Amino acid sequence: MLPFKLIYSDEYFLPIGQHVFPAEKYRHIHTRLLENKIAGPSDFLTPQPASEQDILRVHTPEYVRKLTTRTLSPQEEMQLEVPFSEELVHAFWLAAGGSILAAECALKDGVAFNIGGGFHHAFPDHGEGFCMIHDVAVAIRRMQHDEKIRTAMTVDCDVHHGNGTAAIFGGVKASSQPLPSVPASTLSAPGKVRSAKAADVFTISLHQANNYPAYKPPSTIDVDLLDGTGDDDYLAWLDNALSSAFRQFEPDLICYVAGADPYKEDQLGGLALTIDGLKRRDELVFKVAKARGVPVMVSYAGGYARKVEDTVTIHCNTVLAAKEIFVTR
Fold first, then answer.
1. Rg from Cα positions in the chain
2. Longest C-alpha distance within the chain, in Å?
3. What is the pLDDT of residues 262-283, one digit of tens each?
4. Distance between CA atoms of residues 19 and 287, nearest Å
5. Contact status, residue 174 vs residue 195, Cβ threshold 8 Å
6. Cβ atoms of 202 and 165 closer than 8 Å
7. What is the pTM (predicted TM-score) of this model?
8. DSSP-H helix ranges across the chain
9. Which of 60, 94, 177, 243 shows the greatest Cβ crowding within 10 Å of its Cβ?
């Protein structure tokens, strides 16, 4: 039995047919966690869909109306890059409910997982990049509304920039500059950091610069990584981004977007992390959170490895990393 909860539903499955997004991965993760005895049945909780009021704390009434009445324009459907359907709307509402429940559990137990979610390309007034509803933002705004938290920090380690997150929580773009905590001798791969001011949510995006989306609104800290960045340089950039963030901001909750797509065999990514390197990434985030006593809500975001089994392994390893950090240390 884990000392934290995993939020999951078979209805997380996205009804999108043959697609580069492996909609079946959620079921495979659930099965693998059970078969490998990483988790037991009692470790899982089933979410309820987010309420319309929850969604409206982030998304515009007009966009929500179009989704619930299935009246998106052809262009808006095309932006989603997944086939639009009533079932798809239900799956995204459910994922948002899962992130709300995961956030509530994280505040009680120190860490919790939504075995889904992380749809960081959704904007207040439209969806894009396989993302219809920004479940992480919905969860943050619900926790703030319920006065369970005042501040939050998003740590986005998907290979793609968290453009929806940046747009929702805002920030004023500053000129490129190195992180204050990066000694010149630490990093062999050059990168670029863009920083902005944080309000009640501090946003970090660690992503491949030469990748989707073309326009990247400013996060509080953006780390633009070069193609082919590997384990050691990635971890150094992440470590320094977290150090810089915590010098500036005190979150009540960390929302960790643990994308599997920085993996070297990912079809939509151009970074070069190994499966071991990705687990070390997870361990770093959890160690920092535990050392500072900040609860962590985890969501899964992307993962498009040529072998779906690799994506499943990477996501299961994130649970293993939390188990090792929060149970045995």
1. 18
2. 56
3. 999 999 999 999 999 999 999 9
4. 35
5. yes
6. no
7. 0.91
8. 25-35, 52-56, 61-68, 74-80, 86-109, 135-145, 163-169, 231-248, 275-292, 308-327
9. 94
